[in-house]
Amino acid sequence: MNETLKFLLDDAAMPRAWYNLVADLPVAPPPVLHPGTRAPLAPSELEPLFPRAVIEQEMSAERYIDIPEPVQAIYRQWRPSPLHRARRLERALDTPARIYYKYEGVSPCGSHKPNTAIPQAFYSKQEGVKRIATETGAGQWGSSLALAGAFFGLEIEVFMVKVSYQQKPYRRAYMESFGARCIASPSMETAAGRGILAQHPDSTGSLGIAISEAVERAAQNADTKYALGSVLNHVLLHQTVIGLEAIRQFDRANDYPEIVIACTGGGSNFGGLVFPFLGSQLRGGPRVRAIAVEPANCPTLTQGRYAYDFGDTAHLTPLMKMHTLGSGFIPPGFHAGGLRYHGMAPLVSLVVDLGLAEARACHQRECFEAGLTFARAEGILPAPESNHAVRVGIDEALKCKAEGRSRSILIGLSGHADFDMQAYSDYQAGVLHDHTYELADLERALAALPSAE
Amino acid sequence: MNETLKFLLDDAAMPRAWYNLVADLPVAPPPVLHPGTRAPLAPSELEPLFPRAVIEQEMSAERYIDIPEPVQAIYRQWRPSPLHRARRLERALDTPARIYYKYEGVSPCGSHKPNTAIPQAFYSKQEGVKRIATETGAGQWGSSLALAGAFFGLEIEVFMVKVSYQQKPYRRAYMESFGARCIASPSMETAAGRGILAQHPDSTGSLGIAISEAVERAAQNADTKYALGSVLNHVLLHQTVIGLEAIRQFDRANDYPEIVIACTGGGSNFGGLVFPFLGSQLRGGPRVRAIAVEPANCPTLTQGRYAYDFGDTAHLTPLMKMHTLGSGFIPPGFHAGGLRYHGMAPLVSLVVDLGLAEARACHQRECFEAGLTFARAEGILPAPESNHAVRVGIDEALKCKAEGRSRSILIGLSGHADFDMQAYSDYQAGVLHDHTYELADLERALAALPSAE
After folding, report:
1. Which helix (H) or strand (E) holds A320?
2. SS3 A80
3. What is the pLDDT of residues A69-90, one digit of tens each?
4. For residue A441, what are the CA distances in angstroms to A118, A326, B126, B161?
5. pLDDT at B2
6. Using CA atoms, how far apart are residues A442 and A329, in angstroms rounded to an integer?
7. Which end of chain A has fewer CB atoms within 10 angstroms, the N or the C?
8. Nearest CA to B279 among B237, B318, B328?
């Protein structure tokens, strides 16, 4: 009666190379620009921040890039992640749709983030780095890098957005359990942090500020590199293990998705799941409808501008062409902390600009409602971020019902909600609301976008 | 360099029947007695509490009992759970031991508890039950039954020990997300609860009290049954999927454990992992050293008496012969909430009494220390309960090092710590202590043991 089919792969069938969408795109991605000169950045200019192997991947146009064996060995601890057929959810919705979900919550940290934390730590270690500095908002990325640091014997410093540092002591305890050092951002430890605190002593921080602090820390210490958990090409590259596995798993299920849905904050979860499907399509394979789902309160793809912008608040990062709300935009409070970022991965932005993917924005209450429907059918309480994909997945399945058509729908379930129970508690108590940002704030942030000239 | 081997099974190789140790024991288990007459209990006398299929299993001496196909279908969502070779931990300890762990944290609730929640809900549904009442301490069992209730369309009422209800709002939110109703125990909803509150208005509850309330609720409502998450024969039976899988996985790893270690609270995690190995030994297979690890502050096997006792505080349950500290014993505070029970599964008690397993008691600080060592090597932060097994596993591995011998050690990792971060936070802040119970309290509780005559 109640059953969920699971399509696992043998370890032997796990991808041995990551997939790089750049190789199959009809246009070359716009170059990354130096924040001072506005000239295209030379790879060597990134060396203070990233290991050379990572910079090479960031700039690569090779279709496949080998996954180092030590990284594969760690991936095998939880990968391939399961692809489930959500038969109980289908029955609950009474839909003819065939709903699948690819579940990344089986990783040690409960999200997709270790897929890139592990290789980033590996390459740093290989090049003699002692310490990695990074930022974290919701804590999923910081936890994953803390784990990777423990595996490879690297010191990890996590600049944690102050409001999360205060409100999520358990995430902090988790990172510290793996030996990482957490610093509430803005902090007095960096010039960027001190600058913010001088102007706003009560600042509760933002991802943009925390990035500034971590970047500064790496730039000023020869034994320290920086690591980012989303946005950049190499991060999306590492995440493609998700989609590559899914394609093989669909093959085993004798099916193929017509619609592929993932949430987007910085874009790595979306890129990781969707790019291998888009690549296949661009090489003549079956078409997929790719849907990027973002929070209505941080609507980078649906309300932002496709323009050059900084990745951080203090304007220390290079300029990237991306969908952005302006680096000065501070989204109002909502629970999907992993989706609170003013910009979007340049590659995801380009894919949307080229019409290869569509974007949709959802409010948080409708997302939590969908998450509970999913949980009671499938037994997994999705992370608030993942609920965005679940919402649109359920909507598409209900459309199938209205049209009497059986479509195959793939939902990217990026993680579980074990560290997000306050959000579910608030939702069920009826105290979780759909605030909206002030249009004037968005217009001001967009007006302040840098000129690329 | 860093690698963890994983021994999965194909779904097709998953056990299709549970294993019942009673069939292979050299003696018959002592009968369960009626709390009033002290005569052996007739199966029909349990019908107000349990579905008939469950009562049959409770009393069965059949070696194998088929797992119903709908239960197998749900098991397949996360089973077979992985058996990992802990190579990174071996290297961190520099031991010649071969350390393995069987990881139940991959279940939807993050522990082994769904293995029995699913079949118990299935049998209730099959027999037309509308509602299941239960108790929960740490919340792992309540969460698992909430999940099972959502799958089968049953109402779930969870009497949650009041101190947990107050200190673990996230566990409560989790259960409520799956549609369960949580009641702080002692409550005014039952005579047992009202009786306690009349005497102790400030009572923060205990597992024994919560059991009394749930049992009363089921006994007085024809459409309501009771479910227990440990202790009873049928619960241990359902958990044997763990050990049955492990045996097949060791076969695939071309190895076999010399030592099998699991933590014990009520005994279902221990029985589930260890009984299939003991059964194989009793039928002429290889010998294993089975070690049950319990908290030094609730030392049922090492300091309790092997005697008839009640399972609850209000003395509503039948009398079982088991290792017990006395149903009036209240253990001092410690973080492994799943191990805070005055009694022990009658089958685990018998196995220890027969010398087929040994028992060891550990204090919580040494367990958390071991848990952090494990986490930094293997990437999984174990539940406080599981840390007890990890502690002894590491001790045995270090003994191998001292003796220069390579032994194969299997650790039962019953769950992860996502909902136990306060404990890790306290440990790392140095505010987690090893309180000890008062000997006089234990002596008083033991002196009050009922006579079986």
Report:
1. strand A319-324
2. coil
3. 999 999 999 999 999 999 999 9
4. 38, 10, 58, 48
5. 39
6. 6
7. C
8. B237
Closest CA to A142 of A154, A155, A157, A131: A157
* A3·B76 Cβ contact <8 A: yes
Tell me: the pLDDT tens digits for A375-394?
A: 999 999 999 999 999 999 99
**Cβ under 8 Å to A: B residues 80-119:** 84, 88, 106, 108, 110
Residue B306 phi, psi dihedral angles, 5° rounding: -90, 100
Place of tokens 């049950």: B292
Give kind and range of the element (H or E) at residue B28: none
The answer to whether A103 and A375 have CB atoms below 8 angstroms apart is no
Q: Quick one: average pLDDT of A324-328?
A: 93
Q: With contacts defined as CB-CB under 8 Å, which chain B residues touch A422?
A: 170, 173
Q: Which residues contact B261 (CB under 8 A, 6 or more apart)?
A: B290, B291, B293, B389, B392, B393, B396, B409, B410, B411, B412
The CA-based angle B225-B229-B235, given to 5 degrees, is: 90
Residue showing tokens 């992860």: B416
> What interhelical angle do B364-378 and A140-152 show, nearest 10?
90
Tell me if the domain spanning A73-110+234-447 has CATH number 3.40.640.10: no
Q: DSSP assignment, residue A10?
A: -
Preferred mutation among B126, B151, B380 to probe A, highest tally of A CBs within 10 A: B151
Q: Of A152, A159, A149, nearest to A179 (Cα)?
A: A149
CA dihedral B377, A226, A383, B374 (to 10 degrees): 10
A4 falls in which pLDDT band (50, 70, 90)? low
pTM of the full predicted structure? 0.96
Q: How confident is the model at residue A108 (pLDDT cuts 50, 70, 90)?
A: very high
The radius of gyration of chain B from alpha carbons, rounded to an integer in Å, stands at: 20
Q: From the CB of residue A104, how many other CB atoms can be counted at a distance below 10 Å?
A: 30
The pLDDT score that the predictor gives to residue A5 is 66
State how beta strands B224-226 and B131-136 pair: parallel
Residue that the structure tokens 């204090």 belong to: B363
- pLDDT beneath 70, residues of chain B: 1-5, 8-12, 452-453
Closest residue by Cα to residue A365 from A281, A428, A290? A428
- In tens, the pLDDT along B37-91 reads 999 999 999 999 999 999 999 999 999 999 999 999 999 999 999 999 999 999 9
Best probe of the B interface among A91, A170, A416, by most B CBs < 10 A, is A170
DSSP B240: T
